[in-house]
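Handout, tutorial session.
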Amino acid sequence: MDSTEKSLHLLEKVSEFNQLYKHLTDHLLYDMGLSHSTINLIDLIGEDELTLKEITTKSRLDKSTVSRQMNAMVKKDLVTKTIGKDKRYVYFKLNEQAGKVFNDYHLQLEEKFKKILSGWTEEEAHMLTVLLGRFNRSMTNRLS
């Protein structure tokens, strides 16, 4: 197999993995009544109290998308929305429920991966981790 064939084969496997991972997370989030955006915003906000503009800047999403997502999170009681002293500014802070939801999502995802890897030896799982780490570093270096 020449290098072009190897690259194409690897690209197919990476694409297949990406689709399967997305399928897995889509179903998990659906079962939990969440979206990828919600989990990503919870992760992004963390312990901070941020304005809509700060969230927009950090997330690199447009203001209307962030506003819609944040308002949905307020309705789900994941975020507390407060108006600043200057009424033009609204601040968002995660509440305790958001932390629980985020942790529960990651625990369930971890359990699913444990089941997926249940037939693997410790050495095989370690090798995959090492190779994925190396692959990620190579991609990061090439993107810079």
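The second record follows below. Compare its token runs with those of the first.
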Amino acid sequence: MRKFAKAEEEAEVNMTPMLDIVFIMLIFFIVTATFTKESGLEINKPEDNNTQNDPPPPDDDKRAIAFVIDNNNRITHDFRVIDISSVASIIKKESVERPEAPVVIQAAEGAHTGNVIRIYDNALEIGIAREKIVVTPKKK
């Protein structure tokens, strides 16, 4: 029996030549590649001149006839608290002045639905088309 046995040698793969080939191929592809500019849509961006590009003033004929109903069922028009009985006269007066104006009703989450329906019905009775009456939730 031998006193000193040789350990089995494990096979190794030398990766250096393979890495050399990969780098040479990489350099070859980079050097031979041609870069083309793809044609596409040209975008005309507006100039950023705040002094010359002010938005046009709002068209007063199309400004909405707005009513806001809060959680306490107070009806507000043009930042004034009004009574439900005066809604019809306000809509009639403003629709004569601005025939293209829509009626906007903003109701808070806790507002009575009856007030919204009365304003809606008043607008219909005066002759505002259904398409021009908008009911939206009040923004907080």
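Points raised in discussion: The chain has a mean pLDDT of 84.
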